[in-house]
User: What shape does this take?
Amino acid sequence: MQPFTNQFMSKRIAFIAPYPFSQAPSQRFRFEQYIDALRDHGFEVNEYAFLDDKGWATLYKEGSTLTKAMAMLRSFFRRFLLLFKLSGIDYVFIHREASMIGPPIFEWIIAKILRKKYIYDFDDAIWLPNYSETNAKFHKLKAYGKVKKIIKWADQVVVGNDHLKKYALQFNSNVQIIPTTIDLKHTHTITTAHTNPVVIGWTGTHTTVKYLDQIVPVLQKLENDYTFEFRVISNQAPEFELKSLNFVPWNKSTEIEDLAKINIGIMPMEDSKWSRGKCGFKGLQYMALEIPAIMSPVGVNTEIVKDGENGFLCDTPNEWEQTLRKLIEDIPLRKEIGARGKQTVIERYSVAANTVNYLNLFKS
Assistant: This one.
């Protein structure tokens, strides 16, 4: 791919996404961290979230049905007004979906009525049902079948891994992979300190904490032989019978510092259609901070990690136990694997390594 040049300066880009900007991980690490680079190359960037801050704050709260309904009405009204602003836009970039519920009305209007070519980006198997228990009774409103239509109408499709690419190619021939990336210059700028007692850690949302169920018995067994902290960084406290458990509420302002206190990072997953679409970002965050990562051999994880070289791939409880024992006892090994993991991020999964490919999306 040819390097990006400045010949397309002074063009306007509209980023259309579900959530308020700088809030959701999928947006922050898929496209938001490239916005400064786009502006540096002369683009005018406009950002349009579906939900406002108030709607985002109530989305995963129990109840609040009327408040959520009002947030959706406000969101649809803003999307309707946005259509009148797109006439002067040179590039439309849609992340995941233009509206969080309902059919792809806005994508259809953008492509078929306004005749705008758009770039479509997604980083999960979002054509499959996946929802929080909080909003389970409304999940059919998400209209999962719309994804293939949005792909079909797109001028370009950008995905996070090969599994997603294979799905998208069924409906559009212009599909490329740009992995979910780490910004080593502005965010992930520190590294863990490999000291004892060791801190084993996991970060994620309440919707993915279920993956830790398979690891809890292993940790309970290890507690009989070692003193360690099991740090869980999330938006909700888990309920595990572990004396080593230390819950740390996720906080954007301290996110990296909280992660860097982990000495061994774990990413257990189930082997499912949904999991195979994940982009391994949790593991990449660990690796960027020189934290040795232990990941389930599911989907893109097997591309990111070479077992025993830059991280570990563990499937059975015995494999998880033996690998954790090895890393708990061997600080030099933790440092060695951590350093190799960071090098992998630098070469393949950093913002710097992918900026040219990202800018080239807006060449024509």
The chain has two domains: 6-178, 199-349. Residues 30 and 180 are 5 Å apart (CA to CA). The first helix runs from residue 25 to 30. The first strand starts at residue 12 and ends at 17.
